[in-house]
Amino acid sequence: RKKLSLFRSLKMNCRKLILPQKVVEAAQEREFDLQGYVFEAAPEQLRTPRIVRVGLIQNKIILPTDAPVLNQITALHKRVSEIVEVAAFCGVNIVCFQEAWTMPFAFCTREKEPWTEFAESAEDGFTTRFCQELAKKYNMVVVSPILERDEIHGGTLWNTAVVVSNTGQFLGKSRKNHIPRVGDFNESTYYMEGNTGHRVFQTQFGRIAVNICYGRHHPLNWFMYSINGAEIIFNPSATVGAVSEPMWSVEARNAAIANHCFTCAINRVGTEYFKNEFTSGNGKKAHHEFGHFYGSSYVAAPDGSRSPGLSRTHDGLLVAEIDLNLNRQTADKWNFKMTGRYDMYADELTKATQNDFKPNIIKE
């Protein structure tokens, strides 16, 4: 009982954020789950609190997957803009959408058409221009994960997060570093591992990074964003219950602890139906659905606390008020960066990547 009580206290070590009644009513009218939480840091003598409000948005697709491509994109723009408006009412400074938010998560089908038609320019595509308008209107940094088409390099596709400054300027982009190969689900049918490394974006509200979906399974991926100075790492995802739900509640939380930073895990919701059957390499018959996207988006803090998750079945907005001072306070307590043996790890990892590597195993 004591262990269970300790676990619950850590999990819920953030108080509810009191939101204006008009905001609560707006969320009810627009039919999405709205939750708000506060992560506090201890008062300091020399630093003032660094308060930032982040918004995590999870949502279903709006139209059937065989509707015209532009209609699907436009419908999602409209839906997300309704939620972003409420986020602005809540005082959100940085908002992040789910992975490939402008389209069905159709990569399970292994078909190229019409799914590749959802790809856009990261710099000046339809969706980036839409996000720039939101950013300027609400003085809000917008993180927009899309399917990117890189026309400069032969029209290559990438899984990319676009970051738009609160001034409305295109700040940059970060591509997905790790591509899943689970059964016959292999996103490299569409795009390969990203080539942007571990970019961190300096915004007016703090240094942020975007660890897209499958990268959350790789501790070193989180670590490298942290090494480059990230204070908040967003993890926009599209993942289904049968594949990953047992791990979902702990991975971003573990990353927050290990890297002395805040992490924000975002997952879409709903079950998406595709006209043509496909298999999933699991011995089961061909099917029309990949599985249920279970939402449950949450925020985790460097001290091990985390918010409850959003709904498993409904669109939602999670607002978290965080004090970035907690990052350094936690680092000063646990000293993971100081006690890490990075030179030793780097040397041994370099050796491990060589063809003549021999594991350091001592035998009798």
From TrEMBL:
InterPro entries: Aliph_Amidase/BUP (IPR050345), C-N_Hydrolase (IPR003010), C-N_Hydrolase_sf (IPR036526). It holds the Pfam family CN_hydrolase. The keyword Isomerase does not apply. GO terms for cellular component: cytoplasm. One of its GO terms (molecular function) is beta-ureidopropionase activity. CDD domains: ML_beta-AS. Pathway: Amino-acid biosynthesis; beta-alanine biosynthesis. Its main location: cytoplasm. Coiled coil: none annotated. Its EC number is 3.5.1.6. Gene3D superfamilies: Carbon-nitrogen hydrolase (3.60.110.10). The keyword Phosphoprotein applies. Keywords: Cytoplasm, Hydrolase, Phosphoprotein. Residues 52-324 form the CN hydrolase domain. It comes from the Eukaryota. It is found in: Cytoplasm. One of its GO terms (biological process) is beta-alanine biosynthetic process via 3-ureidopropionate. Homodimer, homotetramer, homooctamer; can also form higher homooligomers. Belongs to the carbon-nitrogen hydrolase superfamily. BUP family. Catalyzes a late step in pyrimidine degradation. Converts N-carbamoyl-beta-alanine (3-ureidopropanoate) into beta-alanine, ammonia and carbon dioxide. Likewise, converts N-carbamoyl-beta-aminoisobutyrate (3-ureidoisobutyrate) into beta-aminoisobutyrate, ammonia and carbon dioxide. This is Beta-ureidopropionase.
